[in-house]
Amino acid sequence: METIGRKRKASKEETATKSKRLQSIADKEQEQENKEIEEAKDLKEWKTDGTVLFGDFGAKGSEKIAGFDMDSTLINTKSGAIFAKNSSDWVWWDEKVPKKLAKAHEDGFKIVIFSNQAGIEMGKVDPKTLKGKFIQLHKSLKIPFQAICATSKDANRKPNTGMWKYFVDNCNDGVEPDKSQSFYCGDAAGRPKGKNRKKDFSDGDRKFAINVGVEFYTPEMYFQNKKEKLPPLAFDIKTLKSLEGKSPTGEEEKYVSEKQEMIVLVGSPGAGKSTFWNNYLKDYVRVNNDTLKTKEKCMKVARQALKEGKSCVIDNTNPDPATRARYTSIAEECKVPCRAFYFDIEKNVCMHNNEQRKVNSNRNHLSKKVGNVIIHTFFKKCVVPTTSEGFTEVKTIKFIPGPFENKSDEETYYNS
Protein backbone atom coordinates (compact mmCIF):
# COMPACT_ATOMS: atom_id res chain seq x y z
CA MET A 1 0.00 0.00 0.00
CA GLU A 2 2.89 2.34 0.87
CA THR A 3 4.38 1.72 -2.61
CA ILE A 4 1.06 2.57 -4.30
CA GLY A 5 0.84 5.76 -2.26
CA ARG A 6 4.35 6.83 -3.31
CA LYS A 7 3.49 6.16 -6.97
CA ARG A 8 0.33 8.26 -6.71
CA LYS A 9 2.27 11.08 -5.07
CA ALA A 10 4.96 10.92 -7.76
CA SER A 11 2.30 10.90 -10.49
CA LYS A 12 0.63 14.00 -9.03
CA GLU A 13 3.98 15.78 -8.79
CA GLU A 14 4.78 14.85 -12.41
CA THR A 15 1.36 16.13 -13.58
CA ALA A 16 1.83 19.36 -11.64
CA THR A 17 5.31 19.85 -13.14
CA LYS A 18 4.01 19.22 -16.65
CA SER A 19 1.14 21.63 -16.06
CA LYS A 20 3.55 24.34 -14.87
CA ARG A 21 5.77 23.76 -17.90
CA LEU A 22 2.84 24.09 -20.31
CA GLN A 23 1.62 27.19 -18.51
CA SER A 24 5.10 28.68 -18.73
CA ILE A 25 5.15 28.11 -22.49
CA ALA A 26 1.68 29.63 -22.84
CA ASP A 27 2.73 32.65 -20.75
CA LYS A 28 5.79 33.21 -22.95
CA GLU A 29 3.69 32.96 -26.12
CA GLN A 30 1.17 35.41 -24.66
CA GLU A 31 3.96 37.76 -23.62
CA GLN A 32 5.38 37.64 -27.16
CA GLU A 33 1.96 38.25 -28.67
CA ASN A 34 1.31 41.21 -26.34
CA LYS A 35 4.67 42.66 -27.37
CA GLU A 36 3.79 42.28 -31.08
CA ILE A 37 0.39 43.83 -30.51
CA GLU A 38 2.07 46.85 -28.90
CA GLU A 39 4.42 47.04 -31.87
CA ALA A 40 1.44 46.88 -34.20
CA LYS A 41 -0.10 49.86 -32.37
CA ASP A 42 3.10 51.84 -32.78
CA LEU A 43 3.48 51.09 -36.49
CA LYS A 44 2.38 54.37 -38.06
CA GLU A 45 1.78 52.80 -41.43
CA TRP A 46 -1.23 50.78 -40.23
CA LYS A 47 -4.39 52.30 -41.60
CA THR A 48 -8.05 51.32 -41.50
CA ASP A 49 -10.04 52.81 -44.37
CA GLY A 50 -13.63 51.59 -44.35
CA THR A 51 -13.41 47.81 -44.67
CA VAL A 52 -9.78 47.87 -45.83
CA LEU A 53 -6.93 47.27 -43.38
CA PHE A 54 -3.57 48.40 -44.77
CA GLY A 55 -0.08 47.85 -43.38
CA ASP A 56 3.11 49.17 -44.95
CA PHE A 57 6.43 47.53 -44.09
CA GLY A 58 8.69 49.83 -46.06
CA ALA A 59 7.71 48.87 -49.63
CA LYS A 60 8.26 51.53 -52.31
CA GLY A 61 6.19 52.12 -55.43
CA SER A 62 6.91 49.85 -58.41
CA GLU A 63 5.52 48.94 -61.81
CA LYS A 64 6.18 45.26 -61.09
CA ILE A 65 3.78 43.82 -58.51
CA ALA A 66 4.10 40.35 -56.98
CA GLY A 67 0.74 39.79 -55.30
CA PHE A 68 0.09 36.94 -52.89
CA ASP A 69 -2.73 35.50 -50.86
CA MET A 70 -1.61 34.79 -47.29
CA ASP A 71 -3.37 31.81 -45.68
CA SER A 72 -2.61 28.46 -47.36
CA THR A 73 -0.35 30.28 -49.83
CA LEU A 74 2.43 31.89 -47.81
CA ILE A 75 1.62 30.31 -44.45
CA ASN A 76 -0.47 27.66 -42.70
CA THR A 77 -1.62 27.66 -39.09
CA LYS A 78 0.81 25.81 -36.84
CA SER A 79 -2.12 24.47 -34.79
CA GLY A 80 -4.05 23.19 -37.79
CA ALA A 81 -7.03 25.38 -36.87
CA ILE A 82 -8.90 27.34 -39.54
CA PHE A 83 -8.34 30.64 -37.73
CA ALA A 84 -5.00 31.33 -36.05
CA LYS A 85 -5.17 31.09 -32.26
CA ASN A 86 -2.61 33.86 -31.82
CA SER A 87 -0.09 35.84 -33.85
CA SER A 88 2.50 33.08 -33.42
CA ASP A 89 0.21 30.35 -34.77
CA TRP A 90 1.77 30.05 -38.22
CA VAL A 91 4.42 28.19 -40.22
CA TRP A 92 5.64 28.74 -43.76
CA TRP A 93 3.51 26.94 -46.36
CA ASP A 94 6.78 25.59 -47.77
CA GLU A 95 10.39 26.14 -46.75
CA LYS A 96 11.00 27.73 -50.19
CA VAL A 97 8.54 30.56 -49.55
CA PRO A 98 10.90 33.07 -47.86
CA LYS A 99 13.66 32.43 -50.41
CA LYS A 100 11.31 32.92 -53.38
CA LEU A 101 9.89 36.12 -51.88
CA ALA A 102 13.41 37.46 -51.30
CA LYS A 103 14.30 36.62 -54.91
CA ALA A 104 11.19 38.44 -56.19
CA HIS A 105 12.18 41.50 -54.17
CA GLU A 106 15.73 41.27 -55.51
CA ASP A 107 14.31 41.16 -59.06
CA GLY A 108 12.52 44.47 -58.55
CA PHE A 109 9.04 43.23 -57.64
CA LYS A 110 7.04 44.94 -54.95
CA ILE A 111 5.58 42.28 -52.62
CA VAL A 112 1.92 42.90 -51.78
CA ILE A 113 -0.28 40.53 -49.75
CA PHE A 114 -3.99 40.70 -50.62
CA SER A 115 -5.93 38.79 -47.97
CA ASN A 116 -9.64 38.21 -47.33
CA GLN A 117 -10.14 38.63 -43.58
CA ALA A 118 -13.93 38.72 -43.14
CA GLY A 119 -13.31 36.87 -39.87
CA ILE A 120 -12.70 40.34 -38.41
CA GLU A 121 -16.26 41.42 -39.20
CA MET A 122 -17.59 38.09 -37.88
CA GLY A 123 -15.63 38.42 -34.64
CA LYS A 124 -13.50 35.34 -35.32
CA VAL A 125 -10.26 37.23 -35.99
CA ASP A 126 -8.77 39.91 -33.72
CA PRO A 127 -7.25 42.67 -35.91
CA LYS A 128 -4.51 43.18 -33.30
CA THR A 129 -3.53 39.52 -33.60
CA LEU A 130 -3.58 39.78 -37.40
CA LYS A 131 -1.29 42.82 -37.29
CA GLY A 132 1.01 40.94 -34.92
CA LYS A 133 1.22 38.10 -37.44
CA PHE A 134 2.28 40.47 -40.22
CA ILE A 135 4.94 41.92 -37.93
CA GLN A 136 6.29 38.40 -37.37
CA LEU A 137 6.29 37.75 -41.12
CA HIS A 138 8.26 40.94 -41.69
CA LYS A 139 10.81 40.04 -39.01
CA SER A 140 11.25 36.61 -40.54
CA LEU A 141 11.43 37.78 -44.18
CA LYS A 142 13.56 40.90 -43.60
CA ILE A 143 12.28 42.40 -46.87
CA PRO A 144 9.74 45.21 -47.41
CA PHE A 145 6.16 44.40 -48.31
CA GLN A 146 2.63 45.72 -47.96
CA ALA A 147 -0.46 44.00 -46.58
CA ILE A 148 -4.00 44.82 -47.70
CA CYS A 149 -6.90 43.01 -46.02
CA ALA A 150 -10.62 43.03 -46.81
CA THR A 151 -12.35 42.83 -43.44
CA SER A 152 -15.91 42.39 -44.76
CA LYS A 153 -17.78 40.48 -47.44
CA ASP A 154 -18.15 43.49 -49.71
CA ALA A 155 -16.69 44.87 -52.94
CA ASN A 156 -13.19 44.78 -51.44
CA ARG A 157 -13.29 41.01 -50.95
CA LYS A 158 -11.64 38.83 -53.60
CA PRO A 159 -12.51 38.00 -56.35
CA ASN A 160 -13.82 41.60 -56.44
CA THR A 161 -11.10 44.06 -57.38
CA GLY A 162 -11.66 46.55 -54.52
CA MET A 163 -8.36 45.76 -52.76
CA TRP A 164 -6.39 46.13 -56.01
CA LYS A 165 -8.05 49.47 -56.78
CA TYR A 166 -7.32 50.66 -53.24
CA PHE A 167 -3.69 49.64 -53.66
CA VAL A 168 -3.29 51.44 -57.00
CA ASP A 169 -5.00 54.62 -55.75
CA ASN A 170 -3.39 54.84 -52.32
CA CYS A 171 -0.43 52.55 -51.77
CA ASN A 172 1.97 52.62 -54.72
CA ASP A 173 3.43 56.13 -54.54
CA GLY A 174 1.47 57.17 -57.63
CA VAL A 175 3.17 54.54 -59.80
CA GLU A 176 0.83 52.76 -62.22
CA PRO A 177 1.44 48.98 -62.12
CA ASP A 178 2.44 47.28 -65.35
CA LYS A 179 0.04 44.36 -65.42
CA SER A 180 2.06 42.58 -68.11
CA GLN A 181 4.97 42.36 -65.67
CA SER A 182 2.89 41.66 -62.55
CA PHE A 183 1.30 38.48 -61.17
CA TYR A 184 -0.83 37.11 -58.36
CA CYS A 185 -0.40 33.82 -56.48
CA GLY A 186 -3.11 32.13 -54.41
CA ASP A 187 -4.42 28.68 -53.48
CA ALA A 188 -8.11 29.22 -54.35
CA ALA A 189 -7.97 28.14 -58.00
CA GLY A 190 -11.04 25.92 -58.36
CA ARG A 191 -8.99 22.72 -58.48
CA PRO A 192 -10.50 19.31 -57.66
CA LYS A 193 -8.98 17.12 -54.96
CA GLY A 194 -5.47 15.99 -55.86
CA LYS A 195 -2.67 13.91 -54.42
CA ASN A 196 -1.85 15.23 -50.94
CA ARG A 197 -4.16 18.20 -51.53
CA LYS A 198 -7.77 18.90 -50.64
CA LYS A 199 -10.25 20.28 -53.14
CA ASP A 200 -9.89 24.07 -53.39
CA PHE A 201 -12.60 25.76 -51.33
CA SER A 202 -13.23 28.24 -54.18
CA ASP A 203 -11.72 29.79 -57.29
CA GLY A 204 -11.64 33.28 -55.77
CA ASP A 205 -7.88 33.87 -56.07
CA ARG A 206 -7.81 32.80 -59.70
CA LYS A 207 -10.78 35.01 -60.55
CA PHE A 208 -9.15 37.89 -58.68
CA ALA A 209 -6.11 37.63 -60.97
CA ILE A 210 -8.36 37.40 -64.04
CA ASN A 211 -10.44 40.41 -62.93
CA VAL A 212 -7.32 42.47 -62.21
CA GLY A 213 -5.72 41.35 -65.48
CA VAL A 214 -2.48 39.76 -64.27
CA GLU A 215 -0.83 36.34 -64.57
CA PHE A 216 -1.97 33.75 -62.03
CA TYR A 217 -0.01 31.07 -60.19
CA THR A 218 -0.94 28.54 -57.55
CA PRO A 219 1.51 28.14 -54.62
CA GLU A 220 2.62 24.83 -56.12
CA MET A 221 3.38 26.51 -59.43
CA TYR A 222 5.23 29.50 -57.99
CA PHE A 223 7.05 28.17 -54.93
CA GLN A 224 7.60 24.55 -55.98
CA ASN A 225 7.97 25.10 -59.74
CA LYS A 226 5.33 22.47 -60.47
CA LYS A 227 3.44 22.42 -63.74
CA GLU A 228 -0.31 22.46 -63.29
CA LYS A 229 -3.09 22.39 -65.85
CA LEU A 230 -5.91 24.29 -64.20
CA PRO A 231 -9.47 23.11 -64.89
CA PRO A 232 -11.99 25.37 -66.62
CA LEU A 233 -13.70 27.77 -64.23
CA ALA A 234 -16.88 26.20 -62.89
CA PHE A 235 -18.73 29.46 -63.45
CA ASP A 236 -17.75 32.74 -65.06
CA ILE A 237 -20.36 35.51 -65.07
CA LYS A 238 -18.50 37.25 -67.91
CA THR A 239 -19.85 34.60 -70.31
CA LEU A 240 -23.28 36.27 -69.96
CA LYS A 241 -22.02 39.68 -71.09
CA SER A 242 -22.84 38.90 -74.72
CA LEU A 243 -26.53 38.58 -73.77
CA GLU A 244 -26.90 42.23 -72.76
CA GLY A 245 -29.76 43.95 -74.56
CA LYS A 246 -31.40 40.73 -75.75
CA SER A 247 -34.95 39.65 -74.99
CA PRO A 248 -35.55 37.54 -71.84
CA THR A 249 -37.81 35.26 -73.90
CA GLY A 250 -35.79 35.28 -77.11
CA GLU A 251 -38.57 37.22 -78.83
CA GLU A 252 -39.39 40.89 -79.17
CA GLU A 253 -42.62 41.23 -77.26
CA LYS A 254 -44.65 43.35 -74.93
CA TYR A 255 -45.13 41.78 -71.50
CA VAL A 256 -47.92 44.09 -70.34
CA SER A 257 -51.47 42.98 -71.19
CA GLU A 258 -54.07 45.45 -72.40
CA LYS A 259 -56.56 43.69 -70.12
CA GLN A 260 -56.50 43.45 -66.34
CA GLU A 261 -54.58 40.40 -65.15
CA MET A 262 -52.49 38.73 -62.48
CA ILE A 263 -48.95 37.49 -63.17
CA VAL A 264 -47.32 34.99 -60.83
CA LEU A 265 -43.53 35.02 -61.00
CA VAL A 266 -41.77 31.72 -60.28
CA GLY A 267 -38.06 31.75 -59.58
CA SER A 268 -35.24 31.50 -57.09
CA PRO A 269 -33.96 34.43 -55.05
CA GLY A 270 -31.44 36.15 -57.32
CA ALA A 271 -33.21 35.04 -60.52
CA GLY A 272 -34.02 38.66 -61.41
CA LYS A 273 -37.76 38.65 -60.71
CA SER A 274 -37.93 42.07 -59.04
CA THR A 275 -35.66 43.60 -61.67
CA PHE A 276 -37.92 42.16 -64.37
CA TRP A 277 -40.95 43.75 -62.70
CA ASN A 278 -39.07 47.06 -62.48
CA ASN A 279 -38.01 46.90 -66.16
CA TYR A 280 -41.18 45.63 -67.80
CA LEU A 281 -44.17 45.59 -65.43
CA LYS A 282 -43.78 48.75 -63.34
CA ASP A 283 -47.45 49.73 -63.83
CA TYR A 284 -48.58 46.51 -62.12
CA VAL A 285 -49.06 46.45 -58.35
CA ARG A 286 -46.10 44.55 -56.89
CA VAL A 287 -47.01 41.97 -54.25
CA ASN A 288 -43.80 41.01 -52.45
CA ASN A 289 -43.26 39.06 -49.24
CA ASP A 290 -40.01 40.95 -48.42
CA THR A 291 -41.99 44.18 -48.06
CA LEU A 292 -45.33 42.82 -46.84
CA LYS A 293 -43.73 40.19 -44.52
CA THR A 294 -46.56 37.59 -44.46
CA LYS A 295 -48.44 35.47 -47.00
CA GLU A 296 -51.74 36.72 -45.55
CA LYS A 297 -50.82 40.34 -46.34
CA CYS A 298 -49.65 39.33 -49.80
CA MET A 299 -52.97 37.65 -50.52
CA LYS A 300 -54.88 40.64 -49.12
CA VAL A 301 -52.99 43.16 -51.27
CA ALA A 302 -53.37 40.97 -54.39
CA ARG A 303 -57.13 40.62 -53.85
CA GLN A 304 -57.53 44.34 -53.16
CA ALA A 305 -55.60 45.30 -56.33
CA LEU A 306 -57.77 43.09 -58.52
CA LYS A 307 -61.00 44.35 -56.92
CA GLU A 308 -59.86 47.91 -57.64
CA GLY A 309 -59.43 47.03 -61.31
CA LYS A 310 -55.63 47.00 -61.22
CA SER A 311 -53.28 44.34 -62.54
CA CYS A 312 -50.78 42.82 -60.10
CA VAL A 313 -47.55 40.83 -60.06
CA ILE A 314 -46.86 38.22 -57.38
CA ASP A 315 -43.13 38.81 -56.92
CA ASN A 316 -42.24 35.87 -54.65
CA THR A 317 -40.43 32.57 -55.30
CA ASN A 318 -43.73 30.60 -55.62
CA PRO A 319 -41.90 27.25 -56.02
CA ASP A 320 -44.79 24.77 -56.07
CA PRO A 321 -48.45 24.37 -57.14
CA ALA A 322 -49.74 24.65 -53.55
CA THR A 323 -48.11 28.05 -53.07
CA ARG A 324 -49.24 29.30 -56.46
CA ALA A 325 -52.82 28.11 -55.83
CA ARG A 326 -53.25 30.85 -53.20
CA TYR A 327 -53.08 33.38 -56.01
CA THR A 328 -54.71 31.54 -58.92
CA SER A 329 -57.75 31.07 -56.64
CA ILE A 330 -57.87 34.83 -55.98
CA ALA A 331 -57.65 35.53 -59.73
CA GLU A 332 -60.44 33.03 -60.35
CA GLU A 333 -62.52 34.58 -57.56
CA CYS A 334 -62.11 38.04 -59.16
CA LYS A 335 -62.69 36.61 -62.66
CA VAL A 336 -59.28 37.89 -63.85
CA PRO A 337 -56.92 35.86 -66.10
CA CYS A 338 -53.67 34.72 -64.54
CA ARG A 339 -50.33 34.04 -66.26
CA ALA A 340 -47.14 32.47 -64.85
CA PHE A 341 -43.64 33.70 -65.71
CA TYR A 342 -41.12 30.97 -64.96
CA PHE A 343 -37.53 32.22 -64.49
CA ASP A 344 -35.38 29.41 -65.88
CA ILE A 345 -32.07 30.62 -64.41
CA GLU A 346 -29.00 28.57 -63.44
CA LYS A 347 -28.31 28.25 -59.72
CA ASN A 348 -24.80 29.72 -60.12
CA VAL A 349 -26.26 32.89 -61.65
CA CYS A 350 -28.78 33.16 -58.81
CA MET A 351 -25.95 32.77 -56.27
CA HIS A 352 -23.94 35.47 -58.03
CA ASN A 353 -26.87 37.88 -58.19
CA ASN A 354 -27.72 37.23 -54.56
CA GLU A 355 -24.13 38.06 -53.55
CA GLN A 356 -24.37 41.33 -55.49
CA ARG A 357 -26.96 42.54 -53.01
CA LYS A 358 -24.17 42.58 -50.42
CA VAL A 359 -21.06 43.55 -52.40
CA ASN A 360 -22.45 45.94 -55.02
CA SER A 361 -23.22 49.33 -53.49
CA ASN A 362 -23.36 50.97 -56.93
CA ARG A 363 -26.99 50.17 -57.60
CA ASN A 364 -30.38 50.24 -55.88
CA HIS A 365 -31.31 46.70 -54.85
CA LEU A 366 -34.98 45.80 -54.65
CA SER A 367 -34.33 42.76 -52.44
CA LYS A 368 -31.93 41.91 -49.61
CA LYS A 369 -29.34 39.14 -49.69
CA VAL A 370 -30.62 35.76 -48.45
CA GLY A 371 -28.72 32.75 -47.13
CA ASN A 372 -27.47 30.31 -49.78
CA VAL A 373 -29.53 27.54 -48.19
CA ILE A 374 -32.72 29.33 -49.29
CA ILE A 375 -31.56 29.20 -52.91
CA HIS A 376 -30.59 25.53 -52.62
CA THR A 377 -34.01 24.81 -51.08
CA PHE A 378 -35.83 26.53 -53.94
CA PHE A 379 -34.09 24.41 -56.57
CA LYS A 380 -34.84 21.29 -54.55
CA LYS A 381 -38.56 22.12 -54.18
CA CYS A 382 -39.28 23.85 -57.49
CA VAL A 383 -42.01 22.44 -59.71
CA VAL A 384 -42.22 24.11 -63.12
CA PRO A 385 -45.67 25.71 -63.50
CA THR A 386 -48.14 24.43 -66.13
CA THR A 387 -51.46 25.63 -67.52
CA SER A 388 -53.19 22.78 -65.65
CA GLU A 389 -52.82 24.91 -62.50
CA GLY A 390 -55.21 27.49 -63.96
CA PHE A 391 -52.74 29.72 -65.81
CA THR A 392 -53.82 30.99 -69.21
CA GLU A 393 -50.14 31.01 -70.25
CA VAL A 394 -46.77 29.95 -68.85
CA LYS A 395 -43.95 32.09 -70.20
CA THR A 396 -40.29 31.08 -69.72
CA ILE A 397 -37.90 33.91 -68.84
CA LYS A 398 -34.13 33.69 -69.37
CA PHE A 399 -31.66 35.83 -67.45
CA ILE A 400 -30.28 38.90 -69.22
CA PRO A 401 -27.68 41.06 -67.39
CA GLY A 402 -28.50 44.75 -66.97
CA PRO A 403 -29.50 47.36 -67.65
CA PHE A 404 -26.83 48.70 -65.31
CA GLU A 405 -27.33 51.92 -63.40
CA ASN A 406 -23.78 53.17 -63.96
CA LYS A 407 -20.29 52.05 -65.04
CA SER A 408 -19.26 51.09 -61.50
CA ASP A 409 -22.37 48.92 -61.20
CA GLU A 410 -21.40 47.04 -64.38
CA GLU A 411 -17.75 46.65 -63.35
CA THR A 412 -18.66 45.29 -59.93
CA TYR A 413 -21.19 42.88 -61.44
CA TYR A 414 -18.71 41.29 -63.85
CA ASN A 415 -15.69 41.40 -61.53
CA SER A 416 -17.21 39.54 -58.59
Automatic annotation (TrEMBL):
Instruction: Give a GO molecular function annotation for the protein.
Output: double-stranded DNA binding
Superkingdom as given in the UniProt entry: Eukaryota
Basic residues bias spans: 1-10
Which Gene3D superfamilies does the protein's record reference? HAD superfamily/HAD-like, P-loop containing nucleotide triphosphate hydrolases
Q: Where is the composition biased (Basic and acidic residues)?
A: 26-41
As given in the record, the signal peptide range reads: none
**NCBIfam families, from UniProt?**
DNA-3'-Pase (TIGR01664), HAD-SF-IIIA (TIGR01662)
Entry protein name: Bifunctional polynucleotide phosphatase/kinase
Q: Name its species.
A: Euplotes crassus
